[in-house]
Amino acid sequence: TGLPRFCAATTFDNYLAAGAWTRVQFNAADANEQGAFAPASGRFTAAEAGPHAFTANLAYRRNGASAPTAFEAQFYRNGAPAGRGRAALTGSLVDGVSCLGLGTVEVFARFTGADGYVAAADSLFSGRQLP
Q: Could you say which DSSP state residue 13 is in?
């Protein structure tokens, strides 16, 4: 099709300190048509203007006895939050089961109340240019 698209994963559990927005380091490209995704930085760069669709799934992993009160994620574009909204889970997070899905090119996440990890085994980031 000639349109850029990618699917990326992280090869390690990303540590998130409590209360701090932290870039999730997606460092392995499972697919990377047109080379628009850079695993070294975890960023997608659009080659041309036009609509793009992005998804991210982040899985929670407990850090010791920590018990975060919320797990939030949002996309960043050009180093700043990318507009409308963010995804959030609140309440009792289940280690290895609780997941967040984002539907707008970096992914940032944070826990509130305690620290934790974004689990490598069940987290992904993907995107594509729409025709």
A: P
